[in-house]
Amino acid sequence: MSTPPNDPSDPQPTSKSRQNRSRAIVAGAIALILVVIFGYMLLVGGLVD
Fold first, then answer.
1. pLDDT tens-digit series, residues 1-49
2. What is the three-class DSSP state of 9?
3. What is d(CA 20, CA 40) in angstroms, rounded to the nearest whole number?
4. Which residues lie closer than 8 Å to 15 by C-beta, 6 or more apart?
5. Terminal CA-to-CA distance of the chain, rounded, Å?
6. Which of 29, 3, 28, 34 is nearest to 16 (CA)?
7. Looking at residue 8, what is its pLDDT?
8. Residues 26, 39: Cα–Cα separation, whole Å
9. 0.70 cut: is pTM over it?
10. 8 backbone φψ class: left, alpha, beta (φ>0; ψ -120 to 50)
């Protein structure tokens, strides 16, 4: 799947959707990491108590 060079006169909806999808994936990954860290801290705090 080769991507054609960016042409300002011809906007490509595929590149925009791909950008939105990658942004959603990054946001989801960050949220997942935060949830894991928060849960781990709660678990460790509960074990220490």
1. 565 555 555 555 567 778 889 999 999 999 999 999 999 999 998 876 6
2. coil
3. 30
4. 3, 6
5. 55
6. 3
7. 55
8. 20
9. no
10. alpha
